[in-house]
Structures are given as structure tokens and as C-alpha cells.
């Protein structure tokens, strides 16, 4: 009875503070992506970003878009964290959220950062948003189905503890490996210049399609109520690592183009 009462209270808090079921890469994942991006910035871009962020790193600001969710004045940015589309669909033909989505959010951030008339304050804010959103774009369940809220309502277990498919990909697998964001970033796969260029090739829409291909596989990887354990981590944590690295490399490409 006490548990049910506590659950009800926490649910109400989630509603009234603006926290809803769409989670994101956990802090560790976002910071790893930010750190990987920093490692691939041009000297000019790094200098300009350092000036804009007043010394704060991309890893440090990568969680800002989540932190502001507790402030209602930022509610307009909530839908920027994800894109909903059918598994057999694509972004172009999918029903669009009138409040915006990951793609429109990223594009708006880039627009503000490129605009010479934008204030430093605006550029600082939207740079922080951009770092986070590019990370979100590479979490497969952020390009999930509307009816299950990107896997949030698909209940499973992680080592006999209740969770959902979205959270498994957000945090559970990363937490199981117990690596810091610096360890994740420093252990990213060694890639040749040609491989990096291949990953960075294309547009935001191309990257959405790339991630959505993984989304399709993730939905078929579990059954409701299934207890996911070492085998699932063995098969899919390499995908998590690859997506964190792709996010960092593509974020670096965007930033190098903006601050060239």
C-alpha cells in the first residue's frame, strides 16, 4: 500500500515538473558523445566554442537540455528530443509534431548559431541544445513509435529489475558496464580518416534514416516482460558504443562547419 502511494506521488511529480516518459541517453552517454566531438574539432572551431561556452566543455554542457526540463518556461523544447514515425515509414512521410521534433530542433539550433545577428546569449543556449540533440538523434528509441512512446511503455526486466525498452538503451546497458564518459570516449573504436568521412557524410535526415534502421531491429529484439541479461548486453552494447561515436563525429562535423 505504501509502495502504491509512493508510486502515485512520483507519477504526479513527473507530470507537474515536466518530466515525462521520453528519456534520453543518460548523462554518461551524452558526455561521451560531447567528448568524442571535442576530439574532432578544428582548432578554429574549438577556440570559438571555448569563447562562447566560457571554458565549459561540450561534455559538461551536453546534459543542459535535460536539466532545463524542470523549468516550465522551457516546455516548448520538450518535443525536440525525439521523432515519432512508424517502423516501416520515414521522416518525410511521417506525421509531424506541430511543436517541432529532433530534426526541426537541430536545424533551428544551427540557424541561430550561423546567424551573425544572434546574441551571444542565444548562441550559447542553442549550442548547448545542439550538443544534446545530436546525441539524442543517435539513441535508436528516440526515433521510435508514437503509440509506445519510443519504447517507454514496452515493459521488460534488466537483471530481474523492472524497466522498459527505452531505458535499457538510454542507461541500463551503459550503467552495467560501469564506465565513465571519459572511458567510453577514450575507448571509442579507432577509425581511419576515410571511415570518419563516411560516418560524417550526409545530412541530418540521412542520419535519422541511419539510426531508424537500428530502431527497427531494437523493436524486434525483445518480448514484453522478458528478463534481459548478459546476452542482450553482449549483442547490443557494441551498437550503443557505435552510436555514441557516430553522434560525436557528426556533432563535430556540424560544429566545424558552423565555426569554420
Automatic annotation (TrEMBL):
Lineage top rank: taxon: Bacteria
TM annotation in the entry: none
Organism name: Tenacibaculum adriaticum
Protein's recorded name: S1/P1 nuclease
GO biological process: one example: DNA catabolic process
Keywords per UniProt: Disulfide bond, Endonuclease, Glycoprotein, Hydrolase, Metal-binding, Nuclease
SUPFAM superfamilies: Phospholipase C/P1 nuclease
GO molecular function: endonuclease activity; hydrolase activity, acting on ester bonds; metal ion binding; nucleic acid binding
Pfam families, alphabetized: S1-P1_nuclease (PF02265)
Amino acid at each position: 500500500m505504501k509502495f502504491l502511494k509512493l508510486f502515485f506521488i512520483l507519477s504526479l511529480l513527473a507530470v507537474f515538473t515536466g518530466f515525462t516518459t521520453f528519456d534520453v541517453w543518460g548523462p554518461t552517454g551524452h558526455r561521451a558523445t560531447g567528448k568524442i566531438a571535442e576530439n574532432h574539432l578544428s582548432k578554429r572551431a574549438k577556440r570559438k566554442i571555448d569563447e562562447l561556452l566560457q571554458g565549459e566543455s561540450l561534455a559538461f554542457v551536453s546534459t543542459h537540455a535535460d536539466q532545463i526540463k524542470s523549468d516550465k518556461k522551457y516546455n516548448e523544447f520538450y518535443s525536440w528530443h525525439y521523432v515519432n514515425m512508424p517502423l516501416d515509414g520515414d521522416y518525410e512521410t511521417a506525421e509531424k509534431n506541430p511543436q517541432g521534433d529532433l530534426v526541426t530542433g537541430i536545424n533551428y539550433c544551427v540557424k541561430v548559431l550561423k546567424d551573425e545577428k544572434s546574441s551571444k546569449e542565444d548562441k550559447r543556449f542553442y549550442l548547448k541544445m545542439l550538443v544534446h540533440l545530436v546525441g539524442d538523434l543517435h539513441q535508436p528509441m528516440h526515433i521510435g513509435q508514437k503509440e509506445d512512446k519510443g519504447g517507454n511503455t514496452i515493459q521488460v526486466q534488466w537483471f530481474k529489475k523492472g524497466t522498459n525498452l527505452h531505458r535499457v538503451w538510454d542507461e541500463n546497458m551503459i550503467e552495467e558496464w560501469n564506465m565513465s564518459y571519459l572511458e567510453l570516449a577514450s575507448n571509442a573504436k579507432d577509425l581511419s580518416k576515410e571511415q570518419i568521412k563516411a560516418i560524417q557524410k550526409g545530412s541530418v535526415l540521412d542520419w535519422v534514416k541511419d539510426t531508424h534502421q537500428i530502431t527497427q531491429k531494437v523493436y524486434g529484439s525483445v518480448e514484453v516482460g522478458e528478463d534481459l541479461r548478459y546476452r542482450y548486453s553482449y549483442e547490443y552494447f557494441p551498437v550503443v558504443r557505435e552510436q555514441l561515436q557516430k553522434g560525436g563525429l557528426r556533432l563535430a562535423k556540424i560544429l566545424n562547419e558552423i565555426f569554420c
